[in-house]
């Protein structure tokens, strides 16, 4: 009985910590987590196909995903501190959703999977804007 109670307690503490760090888990956050998983797997498969897969790259990619989640948590804490609702967190989540989608499309294109030209044009426009080209 005590073992079941301790597992339930740990689960409850974990959910409370997630709530504190990220706020309400809404649809945007679930979309981000899903895209992060898809990007993680697709990039790993791409490296396997190109014979560049290493455990160091895998853990580096995992560390980047964790840091992204930490940044979302920081955005949520700023929202709490500045009493802005969840606007900073939601903006951050949308930014990372676009980033993950960009990475998935880039990986698919590098694998030779046909990608609609409109998406490639959007990617090129974003790349040029980020590089500071007019």
From TrEMBL:
Listed GO CC annotations: membrane
Protein's name in the database: Phage holin family protein
Location(s), subcellular: Membrane
Superkingdom: Bacteria
Family under the similarity heading: Belongs to the bacteriophage holin family. Cp-1 holin subfamily.
Pfam families: Phage_holin_4_1
InterPro entries associated with the record: Phage_holin_4_1
Keywords: Membrane, Transmembrane, Transmembrane helix
UniProt organism field: Bacillus paralicheniformis
Phylogenetic placement of the source organism: Bacteria, Bacillati, Bacillota, Bacilli, Bacillales
